[in-house]
Fold this protein.
Amino acid sequence: MIGLKIPKKQANSIRLILQEKSILDHEWKIKRVDDYVYLPLNKKPDAMLLNELNLSNSNLVETGFEKLQKRPQSIEDYLKDRIPPEKMDEFKKSFDIIGDVVILEIPDELEEEKYIIGEAALKFTKRKTVYRKKSEIRGVVRTRELEHLAGEDQPVTIHKEYDSQIMLNVKEVYFSPRLATERRIITNQIKDGEIVIDMFTGVGPIAINISRTRKVKIYAIDINPHAINYLKKNINNNKLKGEVYPIRGDVKDVLDSINIQADRIIMNLPETAHEFLPIAIKHLKSGGIINYYQFSSDYSEPIKMIRSTAKPRKVEILDQRKVKSRSPGVWHMAIDARIS
Ligand SMILES: C[S@@+](CC[C@H](N)C(=O)[O-])C[C@H]1O[C@@H](n2cnc3c(N)ncnc32)[C@H](O)[C@@H]1O
């Protein structure tokens, strides 16, 4: 290939000029032989440039260069030499990181490449474990099947969210790091002294986040015994200002058996929360707030649901948000409603 042979002393200044003119070929290593430096070029410089550099055609030589081993800068960069180009489009870099665990979505078209992708995710995220989503989130406890791809097969981890430490087993409980902003929004709404019911607490990320910074009482309910066990650990592992009471059971049975009137009820079970609206409204003080979630394509559907269930109580919509996308055109919606 074409190179420019120049005395060592001039090499740096000429290299910078060639770089500026985009003539230096960065795919090849600069070569040093005795008192000369050979710069790899991607095209022959014209006479004017040679003149400007105080060089002539005699400095242009045909010579070999060593290919530069470029270190990949991203997971796509790393994978593009390892999986066939026609399959590269299938690779979506959307993954969740929960503590030391990476959870990837890999389409069936990339079945043969799944371990390479797993290793790449391990390398680039510097976490300890990589799983692949093997099913949708399903069932009452809202978990999914996971397939181990790389690193240790260790589903128990501690996830740090803001200043909370959330311990969980990714195979046994629901947890989404994508709800972190929403949990922060809710926490910011809460005042000291509130009595809160977190109807579907999971391992308690909202309850822990709120009670770390607010002097509140939170009844944190979940039907999944594993979730409640981790919630208990999370209560111990975080320095809390408020009090969290973990309760295992179906929220309908739990609320029927205890006599609480709350200032706020958090209902993060977007698939079926509407079924629990009657019992929530029954346990909400006049002027209390419901943080309600529903999968929907618009705000009007969940708002209608709240208004019709609360009747004849007065409903004031305080805020409405798209928390995250669920599927094309369908959102995980949040509605904050005051019910008097
Ligand atoms: C979408 S997750 C929300 C978890 C948590 N709020 C969070 O932000 O990570 C829903 C939770 O509701 C729980 N759940 C479902 N049906 C329930 C019921 N009838 N009573 C109590 N908990 C229930 C599931 O076990 C699951 O942990």
